[in-house]
Amino acid sequence: MGQPGPRHVILLGFMGSGKTTVGRLIAERMGLPFVDTDRCVGELAGMTIPEIFDRAGEETFRSYETRALRHALDGPPSIIATGGGIVTREENWPLMTSRGVTVWLRVGFDTLRRRLADSKDRPLLSGDTTWERTRRLYLQREPLYRRAAAWVDGEQPAEVVADTVIKAVGSLPDARNDRVE
Ligand code: S3P
User: Fold this and answer.
1) Residue 104: beta bridge partners?
2) Looking at the whole model, is its pTM more than 0.90?
3) Buried/exposed 111-128: b ≥16 CB within 10 Å, e otherwise
4) Ligand 1 atom having least distance to the Cα of 65
5) CA–CA separation, 88 vs 77, rounded Å?
6) How far does residue 4's CA lie from ligand 1's centre (Å)?
7) What separation in Å is there between the alpha carbon of 131 and the centre of ligand 1?
8) Cβ(22) to ligand 1 under 6 A?
9) Of the candidates 94, 98, 99, 106, the residue with the CA atom closest to the CA atom of residue 146
10) What is the whole-number distance in angstroms between the Cα of residue 20 and the centre of ligand 1?
11) pLDDT over threshold 50, residue 178
12) Per residue in 71-124, pLDDT tens?
């Protein structure tokens, strides 16, 4: 399933783990393009993410997300920031692991909760959602993030996290994750 040549760096992690901020920094430092699947979904759908959830539901959002992922992976090697739920669709895994190296930005729930307190554009955190429910979602997803080829402490300042990711990716044999192929 693997393809030869340089690979994408794919950032995974729960909402608020810093994928976009850190991803931009890594891209800048490595001189590679930065791609954000959430942004790509918005462009493909011609709607904002809350609008997609509202009008078409989460499953439709997930289908757009897989399309956005494929699109990013078909492009030149890049740093890809994903949405927190990309790990929940099994079909995304062989795509990610065959074309890139997956990195989990690991952040504890208390820190995430602090970071997400003012979040307004995330449908899964709006409406009647409670922190208890969000914590359950985090716990449900944790085993999926653990499948990443590299785990990085995402609690550090973004610049430090970016450097750690670059080092971690550089030290992986062949910069790929064979575990779940
Ligand atoms: C989601 C995370 C969001 C976005 C959508 C769903 C999730 O991205 O894709 O709101 O299921 O965790 P961020 O992780 O960038 O907030």
Assistant:
1) 12, 151
2) yes
3) ebeeebeeeeebbbbeee
4) 9
5) 24
6) 30
7) 16
8) no
9) 106
10) 11
11) no
12) 999 999 999 999 999 999 999 999 999 999 999 999 999 999 999 998 888 999
